[in-house]
Write a structure and sequence with these properties.
heterodimer; A: 113 residues; 7-stranded mixed beta sheet; 11 strands; globular; B: 117 residues; mainly beta; 4-stranded antiparallel beta sheet
C-alpha cells in the first residue's frame, strides 16, 4: 500500500493564481481531511469528508474548496491564492470513529508571493 | 469545541534520560480519543500512541507511554530511555464524539524536543 499520497511536494504561486493540491489514499478509508501547518502552530483543520459526495468545513475553510467524487481522492483547491495561504498542507485519512489514528500524507509546502 | 494545550515550547534532555511531554485538554464530549504524533525535521507526521477516554489502563507502545489522568484532563507522553533519534516536534491531539469522530483532530502547538548526547 502507498498509504496517503500528495502532489506536488513543493509549489510556488503568485497572488491571485489558483491551483489544486492532490490527495489520494489506497486504504479504503471513508474519512479524509485537509490540514494546514503554520510556524509555531499545530495543524489546523481546513475541510473534511466522511465519504464520497459528502464534505464539510473545518476550523479554517476560507479560501479553499474541496470535493469528493471517489473514496480514494480528496483534492483541495485554492481559488485565488493569497500570501496568508503560505503554509504546509497535509492530507489525512482514517477509518471512522474517535479511536482510529489518522494517516498523514507527506505534505505539500506552498509559498504564495 | 475542543482545546489542546502544550505548555512546553522546547525541551533539552540528555540522552538515555526519561522525558515527559505535557498535554492538557478541554472538551465537553463524553467520549474522546487522545493521540500523540511525532514530526521529525523531515516533516512527516508519525503516529505514536492512542488513549481512549474510557480506557482504564494507560496506553503503552514500546518506549512510549501515555500518562492519562482524566480528572485533571491531562494526557502526558512519557518517553523512556531517550535516544538521539527522538529529537523532533511532538504534537498532542484529540478527537471527540460530538462530530462522530469525523471532523478531524484538534492539535496543540507542539513541543520541540532536543536530545543531547
Amino acid at each position: 500500500n502507498a498509504g496517503v499520497t500528495q502532489t506536488p511536494k513543493f509549489q510556488v504561486l503568485k497572488t491571485g493564481q489558483s491551483m489544486t493540491l492532490q490527495c489520494a489514499q489506497d486504504m479504503n478509508h471513508e474519512y479524509m481531511s485537509w490540514y494546514r501547518q503554520d510556524p509555531g502552530m499545530g495543524l489546523r483543520l481546513i475541510h473534511y469528508s466522511v465519504g464520497a459526495g459528502i464534505t464539510d468545513q473545518g476550523e479554517v475553510p476560507n479560501g479553499y474548496n474541496v470535493s469528493r467524487s471517489t473514496t480514494e481522492d480528496f483534492p483541495l483547491r485554492l481559488l485565488s491564492a493569497a500570501p496568508s495561504q503560505t503554509s504546509v498542507y497535509f492530507c489525512a485519512s482514517n477509518h471512522g470513529g474517535i479511536n482510529y489514528e489518522q494517516y498523514f500524507g507527506p505534505g505539500t509546502r506552498l509559498t504564495v508571493t | 469545541a475542543q482545546k489542546i494545550t502544550q505548555t512546553q515550547p522546547g525541551m533539552f534532555v540528555q540522552e538515555k534520560e526519561a522525558v515527559t511531554l505535557d498535554c492538557t485538554y478541554d472538551t465537553s464530549d463524553q467520549s474522546y480519543g487522545l493521540f500523540w504524533y511525532k514530526q521529525p525535521s523531515s516533516g512527516e507526521m508519525i503516529f505514536l500512541i492512542y488513549q481512549g477516554s474510557y480506557d482504564e489502563q494507560n496506553a503503552t507502545e514500546g518506549r512510549y507511554s501515555l500518562n492519562f489522568q482524566k480528572a485533571r484532563k491531562s494526557a502526558n507522553l512519557v518517553i523512556s530511555a531517550s535516544q538521539l533519534g527522538d529529537s523532533a516536534m511532538y504534537f498532542c491531539a484529540m478527537k471527540g464524539d460530538s462530530g462522530g469522530g469525523a471532523d478531524g483532530l484538534t492539535f496543540g502547538k507542539g513541543t520541540h524536543l532536543i536530545i543531547q548526547p
